[in-house]
Structure formats: C-alpha cells, structure tokens
Amino acid sequence: MTLEDRITSALKNAFAPSYLEVINESRLHAGHNEEAAKTGQTHFRIRIESEKFAGANRVASHRAINEALGFAFDEGLHALAIEIRKA
C-alpha cells in the first residue's frame, strides 16, 4: 500500500468525508527535492469536505488533519497543501 493510499484511508477513517481528493504533487518538486525524485511520495494536496469541520476554524481543521496524518510525516511526507470545503 502506497503512502497515498494510507493517507486516503486515514482521512476517510478520521473524518468520514463527503468529498475527498488526495493529489500526489511530488513530481512537481523532483527538481529541488531529492527525496521526491526517489520516492514520488513527498508532496500532496488534499481537498476534503466533512461535517467534522463544521464550526471549526481553519487552524483547528488543519491541525486535526495534520494529527491524523502524523504517521505520514514520519514516513517522508514533506509538504501538505490542505483545501477544506465547508459542508
């Protein structure tokens, strides 16, 4: 299972999103990031919509996502762009 698959699974389990898109953007960073060139699993963009973010501000929502994906940062995730759509 790839890091992308595990990120997708972790987000589904933590937030039961009504919309989720996990986009691997690592190829865009291969020229300046040696790890991105090697693994292809270092830079991701997440677009997510979930009732769990209702009433939460942007900082709290981003923290919750970063917490749910803590394992990914330990495994080489270098950058995460987060786009939250309000349900």
Short description:
The chain has four helices and three strands. It is an alpha+beta fold.
What does this structure look like?
It is a single chain. The chain has helices spanning 3-15, 34-39, 58-68, 70-74; strands spanning 19-24, 43-49, 79-85. By secondary structure, the protein is of the alpha+beta class. Helix content is 40%, strand content 23%.
Number of domains: 1
Assigned CATH class? Alpha Beta
Strand content: 15-25%
Low-confidence segments, ≥5 residues, pLDDT <50? Answer: none
Give the full name of the CATH homologous superfamily: BolA-like
Helix content estimate = 40-55%
Structural class: alpha+beta
Overall shape: it is elongated
Distance between the termini: 29 Å
Q: Rg, please?
A: 13 Å
Average pLDDT taken over every residue: 88
Question: Biggest sheet, open or closed, and with what strands and sense?
Answer: 3 strands, mixed
Count of separate DSSP helical elements: 4
Side-by-side strand order of the widest sheet: 1-2-3
Number of DSSP strand runs: 3
In CATH terms, what is the fold-level topology? GMP Synthetase, Chain A, domain 3
The secondary-structure element order is HEHEHHE
By CATH, the architecture is named: 2-Layer Sandwich
